[in-house]
Amino acid sequence: MTHHVFVLGEMKDGTVRSVSIEALAAARKIAGNHPVTGILFGEHANENSDIMIQHGADEVITADHQALRQYTTDGYSQALLQVLPDNQPIVLVIGHTAIGKDLSPRVAAKIGMGLITDIVSLEVVNGKPIFTRPIYAGKAFEKKTFKETSGLVTIRPNNVEPLPKDQSRHGKKSHVQVNIKDIRTVVKDVMKKAGGGTDLSEAKIIVAGGRGVKSAEGFKPLEELADVLGGAVGASRGACDAGYCDYALQIGQTGKVVTPDLYIAAGISGAIQHLAGMSHSRVIVAINKDPEAPIFDVADYKIVGDLFDVVPHITKHLKDD
Ligand code: FAD
């Protein structure tokens, strides 16, 4: 089956996000010997074309327009529909990010193709891509494919292994003019939250705190450990509800779903709704003073103790090394 595969690259702070690099690896697998085309929008599109090519794209199409400088559903969907070929079998891969989740149903509906969201792995059987995605809040997985040839998939960050950067790869680059009109929303300003550095869903290391941290101040030792490890700080809903931290940090069924290489849970009991957001992390370390805490059921390393002793101790050792 012929698949021309497209990847919409997302950018953050002027560079391509790691989930888009992972999307390129997924696209390469789906495409086989057929072409993979990256798409980049906005003022930093041209300067990021090479990164897309070095990570698997054969060609990159860029477009810039005032309406593409900040993401809006109208702007991006109109531009995408102009860039994608008409009446040809295609697969479009987008990261399962806030933008991907917003854009993908609209584009799939406009084109009239199937949509499979939040995929964590894929295989190609007899030329047909089969996608695996979690269901029932991560307790089970289902395999899906498209009924038609064309389709759109969103991939969960941190699950598909990116292709190593190959600086010897060269590809075609084309810049297209897009006509965007009737934008119904205007982004006037983007305000960054203090401390909102690493995106939780893309972080390789997460140090998460629960109600056991006891106060906003109690997050300090966790922040210090995350800092030493180069990771991000997350939280349980218990900690958010108690006002110890912002809801942007919440991990779980009604928060962010994360799959870092290392997840350190400190003072988190391990309620089912929290596990739904982190239990597929590669290595889980749990620190809890209650040896019966359910978080220990999913932990690879179990530390029974007071987090205010254990966490600074680990930080000190890492700093000394
Ligand atoms: P607790 O359950 O109170 O646990 C605190 C833990 O800290 C305990 O295990 C205790 O032993 C330990 N502890 C205390 N002091 C220390 C110390 N000094 N050192 C070490 N350990 C210590 N929760 C989420 O996290 N994410 C979600 O997305 C989410 N969605 C939900 C959706 C619904 C519809 C519902 C009903 C609930 C949801 N919840 C979610 C809430 C969830 O059920 C739990 O209430 C919540 O996860 C508990 O947070 P916690 O583990 O921080 O607090």
Automatic annotation (TrEMBL):
Keywords: Electron transport, FAD, Flavoprotein, Transport. Gene3D superfamilies: HUPs, TPP-binding domain. GO terms for molecular function: electron transfer activity; flavin adenine dinucleotide binding. SUPFAM superfamilies: Adenine nucleotide alpha hydrolases-like (SSF52402), DHS-like NAD/FAD-binding domain (SSF52467). Binds 1 FAD per dimer. One of its GO terms (biological process) is fatty acid beta-oxidation using acyl-CoA dehydrogenase. The keyword Transport applies. It holds the Pfam family ETF_alpha. Coiled coil: none annotated. PROSITE patterns: ETF_ALPHA. Residues 5-195 form the Electron transfer flavoprotein alpha/beta-subunit N-terminal domain. It comes from the Bacteria. FAD binds at residues 211, 236-237, 250-254, 267-274, 288. Its cofactor is FAD. PANTHER family: ELECTRON TRANSFER FLAVOPROTEIN ALPHA, ELECTRON TRANSFER FLAVOPROTEIN SUBUNIT ALPHA, MITOCHONDRIAL. Belongs to the ETF alpha-subunit/FixB family. This is Electron transfer flavoprotein alpha subunit apoprotein.
